[in-house]
Amino acid sequence: MTFRFLSPALIELTEAANYYEGKVPGLGSDFIDEADAAISRVLRFPEAWGRLSDQFRHCNFRRFPYTVIYTIQ
Fold first, then answer.
1. 72 in Cβ contact with 44 (< 8 Å)
2. What is the pTM of this model?
């Protein structure tokens, strides 16, 4: 299974990482690590996470108030 970000999602990810990095040095990197972990969970177990609709699912970050919204194709 592979993944891709939609442009708005990639912009949001970058802006959030920059925001957290501005608050506490290193926190932006922690945020990116958490995003990578959530994506890894989705790639390993794509059907394990909750449904938002018939087409979309979501996997929450553990440490930050964000979620990965995805579809299985």
1. no
2. 0.91
